Amino acid sequence: MKSEKPFVRLDHVKFSYYSSRGEVEALKDIDFSVEKGSFVAIVGPSGCGKSTILSIISGLLKPTGGYITFYSEEFAPPKIGYMLQHDHLLEWRDVYQNILLGLEIRKLKTPQNLELIDNLLEKYKLANVKHQKPSALSGGMRQRIALIRTLALRPDLLLLDEPFSALDYQTRLSVSKDVYDIIKSEEKTAILVTHDISEAVAMADTVILLTKPPCRVKDIIPIEFEKHGISRDEVRNSKLFQQYFDEIWRELQNENTNQ
Amino acid sequence: MKTQINSSDGQRNYMRKAKLHKLLIFWCRILVFAGFLALWQTAASFKWIDSFYFSSPLAIAKLFVHDIRDMSLLRHIGITLLESGLSFLLIIVFSVITATFFWFYPSLGKMLEPFLIVLNSLPKSALAPLIIVWLGTGPRTIILCGMSVGIFGCILNLYQAFEQTDPERLKLIETLGGNKLQKFTKIVFPQNIPTFISIAKVNIGLALVGVIIGEFLAGRQGLGYLIIYGSQVFKLDMVILSIVILCAIAMLLYGMLNLLNKKIIALWQ
Ligand SMILES: Nc1ncnc2c1ncn2[C@@H]1O[C@H](COP(=O)(O)OP(=O)(O)OP(=O)(O)O)[C@@H](O)[C@H]1O
Ligand SMILES: [Mg+2]
Predict the structure, then answer these.
(1) Which terminus of chain B has fewer Cβ atoms in its 10 Å neighbourhood, N or C?
(2) Which helix (H) or strand (E) holds B237?
(3) Segment A87-138, tens digit of pLDDT
(4) Same domain as B97, residue B63
(5) Strand partners, A83
(6) B191 touches chain A (CB under 8 A)
(7) What is the pLDDT of residue A258?
(8) Residue in B208, B90, B199, B98 with CA at minimum distance from that of residue B146
(9) How close is the nearest chain B Cα to the Cα of A70, in Å?
């Protein structure tokens, strides 16, 4: 599934916020690339600029320095799906209409796309809540619906900004697994921002560690369960998982105590 | 999903008591009102109060029936309703357009906001004589008076509600590839419909106030005119009857919007 071709590359990307309270240098020097079909997790201290990186990749913010390059076989920029921290399901629309939001905006309500939505709802066991209001649903369901809203636009690259942070621990485990399975079975490339180390290790092929602000890449750690013959469903119980966890924990700890 | 009510004796008992209580309150209200009318009528009949100044329920009822028969009252009511309705509609249309415009051009909104605040804190009846000088007497003046009371506050409240839209939701539209127009049509406007209804609820009352002020000063017809005319020729029956009808109209309009409000809120959950 993993090809060695880069899909997105960030070259010395810098970003500063300017406001009346002064300049905030959020990103100092960000360098990494993401391969097609891979699952990358970004971990770092809070406020270090993780969301800013996603906003830059999605094009909502323009870097103040450096380059961002997309590689694609077609002569078109890749489609990017961006899932924000909260599900932001609109309370005046039912589940189905919420999922349609992106298609309405892009004027893409084609029969094929509507069919895709129906399939996704069916596949991920949400068809029975299709016409309910979001307020009637659990946090985990809402998050999966938000994911389907993003997938409806058939993105090549998924950006997930702490999508599970609003959920309680139990739900979090099961929804993160669901989301992982969905992303893998739809063969998407994904970048996940999280401050939960175990979540990062359990889901990603690569973990990118960031420094405190102004933010740089501290380390890039490949996560290689498959090489050791451990399937993704049981990684959390493996020794290797603990090793990865400890390694990342230590590095983050250093980061927080330094200076 | 239906929640189970009446699941136990305790619950059933509670529900019955709550219902009884509600019924009791309702009948007490009726009783208070009837008692008030009875007291008023007795006081007038036994000449405890001078019914020339204070009128009496029976006299008012008689006048009501008489004036309804000769159609004059209905015409006055109709005129006041029409003028209030038009003022209200104009307030709403104008405010929505202006507030929307301000949202699309925030610098314009920021620039004009202090002017609106000053105009809104003005006692609006002070404007009425000016409007009469500009437009003369007649329906146009009265409708403008009706608008003048509510419109500045309406624009301000609506604009401020639009402004307070969660920026993360607007970002959601951006992540889905939407532009500013779609931010407005998909988020800002629908999200503020409940606010809009409660603003409308206030403004229908304000439109009525404005129209009555207008009719006091520049009317030849309408309930405001009846009140002023009645007080000048000492037909106090007529004055009080008009006030009672105004009460009824206000209640009716408010009730209608309340109903609409409930429907919309239910849709929004
Ligand atoms: N609109 C803004 N204006 C000014 N400064 C900002 C703005 N948005 C973010 N920042 C600052 O930039 C830095 C990076 O913000 P960012 O949201 O990318 O961090 P984050 O790693 O996602 O944080 P968190 O863990 O809280 O989600 C922070 O110090 C933040 O205070
Ligand atoms: Mg963030």
Answers:
(1) N
(2) helix B236-267
(3) 999 999 999 999 999 999 999 999 999 999 999 898 888 889 999 999 989 8
(4) yes
(5) A160
(6) yes
(7) 66
(8) B208
(9) 18
